[in-house]
Amino acid sequence: MKPPVAVLPPSAQRLPGIDALKALGCVLIVWHHLAFYGPMSDVVYTAAPALMDWLYDDARMAVQVFLVVGGFLAASVLAPQGLAVFRQPGRLILRRYQRLALPLLVALAITTLVAAAVRPWLAHPSVPDSPTAWQVLAHVFLLQDIVGQEALSAGIWYAAIDFQLFVISVLLFALVDHGHRRWPGVPAQAGVLLVVLLAAASLGMFNRHAALDISGLYFFGAYALGMLAWWASRSARPVRWLLALGLLGVVALVLDFRGRLLVALVVALILAALERRRASGRWLDAPWLLQLGQMSYSVFLIHFAVLLGVNAVVSHFWPTQLAANALGMLVAFALSLLAGKALYLGVESRRRPARVPPGVGLSTP
Question: Helices 16-36 and 63-78, interaxial angle, to 10°?
Fold first, then answer.
């Protein structure tokens, strides 16, 4: 007998709100990196310090959107009703790795070539050094931060974290499923309890220590809020799920207020409300918004190469001209979207596992 395949019902295969949130997060992350990696932003800072400071310090909290959406989609695939619907966790993890790694490695190859091209004439800390063999190997297995290797591109850490979070979730539900089949006394929905307990530990302990941000445990609290949002949206009695979601978030905020956690809580509640009402609208259904949300991972992977190239050209020809550098940032943003679209159409969208709805389980920006 074949194991059940993780496929969403037609009504849940596409939620415009998810693509809209991912599109917004994608835009903010690209602009955060535009402000973070100069030298164009250094010149623009002289004319718009408040805007550059906000992009530099606060826009990065958009990563919480992807954490919560990731948990939301993971729950929809792994345990739509709180029960595991898969029987081969190893195969599921391997498919996830393939989804993440192939476009990532293509983007890293392009970024490495761009960095080599601009290195001789862009003396700036944002330009990565030539990679070592060990560094490349660490990136191939998404272990660069854990083994202490410098990242070759901006934001690559998130692909590794996304993979860790998915693996943790698969293992939690696989453990409970195995235990239930071997010992029927183990509640079939104990996986939900494990998710909540690990989320509480993440929000109360791991997420309060910045040194742990190389681990999925640091981010699992936000991821679990997304999972609870999914279960709330699908339950006939959503109040208990919303209470668990709210209690986790509020207690963690009282214990140690973190702006990023507040963003995660709000996003989780928005997702639950959108899915319960099957909410849509003209702005959510805008084709450009849906497309940007769908290709957000590819944009996230490739935009650093674009930033390096545009920074190199602008800083070489117009190193101090405000207008040229401001225009350069706008051009870099537009080219990042175009490059992301090319990577999405050429690589990412061609590797979707069969019978899994587009976008499901792939939350990375």
Answer: 140
